[in-house]
From TrEMBL, chain A:
<dbReference type="GO" id="GO:0006289">
    <property type="term" value="P:nucleotide-excision repair"/>
</dbReference>
<dbReference type="GO" id="GO:0005662">
    <property type="term" value="C:DNA replication factor A complex"/>
</dbReference>
<keyword id="KW-0238">DNA-binding</keyword>
<keyword id="KW-0539">Nucleus</keyword>
<dbReference type="GO" id="GO:0000724">
    <property type="term" value="P:double-strand break repair via homologous recombination"/>
</dbReference>
<feature type="domain" description="OB">
    <location>
        <begin position="70"/>
        <end position="126"/>
    </location>
</feature>
<dbReference type="GO" id="GO:0000781">
    <property type="term" value="C:chromosome, telomeric region"/>
</dbReference>
<dbReference type="InterPro" id="IPR014892">
    <property type="entry name" value="RPA_C"/>
</dbReference>
<feature type="region of interest" description="Disordered">
    <location>
        <begin position="12"/>
        <end position="37"/>
    </location>
</feature>
Automatic annotation (TrEMBL), chain B:
<dbReference type="GO" id="GO:0006281">
    <property type="term" value="P:DNA repair"/>
</dbReference>
<comment type="similarity">
    <text>Belongs to the replication factor A protein 3 family.</text>
</comment>
<dbReference type="InterPro" id="IPR012340">
    <property type="entry name" value="NA-bd_OB-fold"/>
</dbReference>
<dbReference type="GO" id="GO:0006260">
    <property type="term" value="P:DNA replication"/>
</dbReference>
<dbReference type="GO" id="GO:0003677">
    <property type="term" value="F:DNA binding"/>
</dbReference>
<keyword id="KW-0539">Nucleus</keyword>
<protein>
    <submittedName>
        <fullName>Nucleic acid-binding, OB-fold</fullName>
    </submittedName>
</protein>
<dbReference type="InterPro" id="IPR013970">
    <property type="entry name" value="Rfa2"/>
</dbReference>
<dbReference type="GO" id="GO:0006310">
    <property type="term" value="P:DNA recombination"/>
</dbReference>
Length: 262, 107
């Protein structure tokens, strides 16, 4: 549903997507370490994730991935100041949650009025039946003035969720997370295993380079052109390979005419 | 946290599935009188809004939290003024996703 190429750029640019890193670095160890990522969510998703835990010590999993930090966008429907903290009741159209903001010692922070849309960065917490979002700092809740941010956030929620599903389907079968987002894209069901005659030129070129039989020498541009059945010019294929090279998905080997997949 | 009473984001077309329920609907507002306004939704449907907070609007685009009365009419609970610069195309596409394949994430 989303193009592999743009997906990669997006994941790399925002750092939201967690485990596989667009730069080709090894994914963070799953398990013991808390994932140090920022996941865009809805209240419904967080509530579901908190409820799904067998014990409060379990990690919180959204889209099948353990999460730590979340961001959400919602409307303030209630505000209460309790000593050193302000509790905002937020409605994001999927549900409501309290967001706790601990105040700095140096003076009061101006309260955000009811009815305002805000962006929140925080960590989900559950103490007994009490499930809240703890804002990271007093600056982690901010009033939205451009309402396109609501659209943007919710599209990002959908995107991140779809991306996570792809990563899961790519790495889940063997229990090993894919080493790069490109392998995730390749393993995803929407890229056909037979060289993908309907895919974009980029996907097809990458598929051919990945499946070349020449070992370390890589595959020549000419061979890629031939494998594409002469549908594309040498120049077009070369340009695509350079673009993939710039993205870090392929690299040149013995000369500028031979490419190998990462 | 409570997700038992969502107010889903809907467009004109999906409105009829939410009879009697609370929804959020965004569109271009046209005042009729103090009690009523019409709203052109992101999928180009025109719905009637029975107003709760008067018929004056300071912005072109409005988000109404409203109860659905019928396929083309709602009653306002509250409103947020979205300003004059709101990307209705992107929002429209988002609402389609919310009410179809990405629904599980929202309601």
């Amino acid at each position: 549903m989303y193009g592999g190429e743009s997906a990669t750029q997006f994941a790399g640019a925002t750092g939201y997507m967690g485990e596989p890193d667009a730069s080709g670095m090894k994914p963070r160890a799953s398990g013991g370490n808390q994932p140090n990522t920022m996941t865009p969510v809805t209240v419904k998703m967080i509530k579901g994730a908190l409820d799904a835990r067998a014990s409060p010590d379990d990690e919180i999993k959204v889209n099948g991935m353990a999460i730590m930090n979340i961001t959400l966008v919602g409307k303030v429907v209630d505000v209460q100041t309790k000593g050193s903290q302000v509790v905002y009741r937020l409605d994001d159209s999927t549900g409501q949650t309290d967001v706790k903001v601990w105040l700095d010692s140096d003076g009061p922070v101006e309260e955000i009025p009811r009815g305002a849309y805000v962006r929140v960065y925080g960590t989900p917490k559950a103490v007994g039946a009490d499930q809240v979002i703890a804002a990271h700092t007093t600056e982690s809740i901010r009033v939205i003035t451009d309402f396109n941010e609501i659209t943007y956030h919710l599209l990002e929620v959908i995107y991140a969720s779809g991306y996570a599903a792809k990563v899961k389907s790519g790495g889940g079968a063997t229990g090993v997370a894919p080493q790069s987002v490109y392998s995730a894209v390749q393993a995803a069901p929407n890229v056909a295993a037979d060289g993908d005659m309907n895919g974009s030129l980029c996907d097809r070129v990458l598929f051919i380079v990945k499946n070349n039989p020449n070992g370390d020498t890589g595959i020549s541009v000419l061979e890629v052109v031939e494998k594409l059945g002469g549908q594309f010019t040498d120049a077009a294929v070369r340009q695509e390979l350079e673009s993939l090279s710039n993205d870090g998905a392929v690299y040149t080997t013995v000369d500028e005419d031979h490419y190998q997949a990462v | 946290m409570d997700d038992s009473a969502p107010a889903p984001r809907v467009n004109g077309e999906s409105l009829e599935r939410f009879q009697g329920k609370k929804v959020l609907v965004v569109g271009e507002v046209a005042p009729v009188d103090a009690q009523r306004a019409t709203l052109k939704t992101t999928d180009d449907k025109t719905i009637t809004v029975t107003l709760a907070e008067g018929g004056e609007f300071k912005s072109k685009y409005i988000e109404f939290e409203a109860t659905v009365d019928g396929p083309m009419s709602v009653t306002e609970c509250s409103r947020v003024e979205f300003g004059d610069d709101f990307d209705t195309f992107s929002y429209g596409e988002l609402v389609k996703l919310i009410n179809t394949k990405s629904r599980d994430l929202f309601y």
